[in-house]
Amino acid sequence: MPVSLYASPPGVLFPRGSPQEWGQAARQPPGLLPAQCRAFSNNKILVELDTSSGVATMKFKSPPVNSLSLDFLTEFCISLEKLENDRACRGLIITSAVPRVFSSGLDINEMCGKSREHYAEFWRAVQEMWIRLYSSNMVTVAAINGSSPAGGCLIALTCDYRIMVENPKYIIGLNEAQLGIVAPFWFKDTFVKAVGHRVAERSLQLGLLHSVPEAHRIGLVDEVVPEEKLQEKAAAVVAQWLALPDHARQLTKSMMRKAVLDHMLAHREEDIQNFVNFISKDSIQKSLSMYMEMLKKKKS
Ligand SMILES: CCCCCCCCCCCCC/C=C/C(=O)SCCNC(=O)CCNC(=O)[C@H](O)C(C)(C)COP(=O)(O)OP(=O)(O)OC[C@H]1O[C@@H](n2cnc3c(N)ncnc32)[C@H](O)[C@@H]1OP(=O)(O)O
What we know:
This protein has helices at 70-84, 116-134, 151-158, 185-195, 197-206, 212-217, 230-242, 246-266, 268-279, 282-299; strands at residues 23-24, 37-41, 45-50, 55-60, 91-96, 139-144, 148-149, 161-165, 171-173, 210-211, 223-225. The chain is α/β, with parallel strands linked by helices. It has a single domain (23-228, 236-299), classed as 2-enoyl-CoA Hydratase, Chain A, domain 1, CATH 3.90.226. The chain has ten helices and eleven strands. Helix 1 packs parallel to helix 2 (116-134), helix 2 crosses helix 9 and helix 4 (185-195) runs antiparallel to helix 8. The chain has an eight-stranded mixed β-sheet with strand order 1-2-3-4-5-6-8-11, with helices on both faces. The structure holds ligand LEDWP2DD. Keywords: Acetylation, Fatty acid metabolism, Isomerase, Lipid metabolism, Mitochondrion, Transit peptide.
């Protein structure tokens, strides 16, 4: 019986809509899914569960860059809840179906020119995503097959293990400072837990985006593999972690993460107010607009 201190986090997001029911392999056209596979998907995310291994693979499929919009975050939380409540599922691999990008982080459009109410709703959804993933009973592995700045990096950091594809074009890190914004304390705490205080302090202040070898060297990613080995490696890692008794692994995970989680939960409403006040400032709105312009110019 899985044990979690945070099976039902307080203040859960009430989803707007629900995903399709699990698709039974038996109902699929022949050859589409193996017999032991179940799947569901929505506009943003595809999930396949291999019931023989108990491992689900979640693929982000929101082109062009899997940015974390309110809709994306809502679908993400619904999918996580569905898997968490499914006794057949014990492990989760998170990866991208969009070429070259794992996730470009929070959707900047959600933080520009909107009402204070919208900012509060959006930020609650960001918190919800982190709470669900950070407190998950499942073994979670990020199979990072593309660039992963800011909120994308946070998703990877929130998993139990990170494997990244070796590619000189891919970058990963918490680059908020480069946008003129600040990584909130729970982004920072999650980062510090992975790489240590000194590395995090330098990386956060400079808003660094690390190359894959550098990310490996500082402990931001645990392993680097060629693209074609990524899924195989991720499956092997999940299997290794699942070989332990669930209750021992889950309680250990809860214990290791409790302080960071409790801190966040205790300051959740205050954190929303801080975000709304910060993001509503004219100077911050200007910085974000300039950053979006810069992204668009880079293309032309
Ligand atoms: C008392 C103390 C108080 C403190 C209080 C603190 C409160 C908290 C403050 C706020 C905290 C906010 C935390 C924010 C976290 C974030 O995640 S912010 C987002 C940061 N993300 C980025 O910087 C990534 C930007 N994107 C890229 O670098 C590149 O797009 C890419 C991911 C490397 C991919 O490159 P490429 O394949 O070349 O694609 P592009 O051509 O650049 O992009 C394609 C289109 O996508 C648009 N886009 C890209 N990223 C985003 C995004 N994050 N949001 C929205 N849109 C994005 C891009 O503009 C392109 O659009 P078009 O030109 O229209 O095609």
